[in-house]
Amino acid sequence: MAPVGEAAALVLVAVLWGSTGPFLRTGAAGLEEVRCQGRLQQLLAEIRFLGLNYKYMVPFLLNQGGSLLFYLTLASADLSLAVPLCNSLALIVTLVTGRILGEDIGGKRAAAGMLLTVLGVALCVAGS
Q1: Residue 2: its pLDDT value, please?
Q2: Half-sphere exposure (CA, 13 Å, Cβ side) for 70?
Q3: H or E stretch at 94
Q4: Residues 70, 11 contacting (CB under 8 angstroms)
């Protein structure tokens, strides 16, 4: 069984990764309208647009904080537990956060998928 601190860190990683995805999509709205001539100028204009947009940068930095915490937790966590736990819970948090923000998450099939994911994570945790 994973120590409580490791499990809490992995759940926090999943929350940071999952909750920031929908906010990143929202914050990047309008990126398609950035137009410049030349590939390099276009790239730099898009980076400037995103870098100066707090609605994008705050979730981005939180997401990167989750990645840093994941990296630090991997030093002591069991890989066979850490990766499925973080990724599956991040998916569930993404769906829930998207739903709260008004995104269409898919109805009954999405709910069934979330339930099966939770059961799979429970089996992974119980088996380790």
Answers
A1: 60
A2: 21
A3: helix 79-100
A4: no
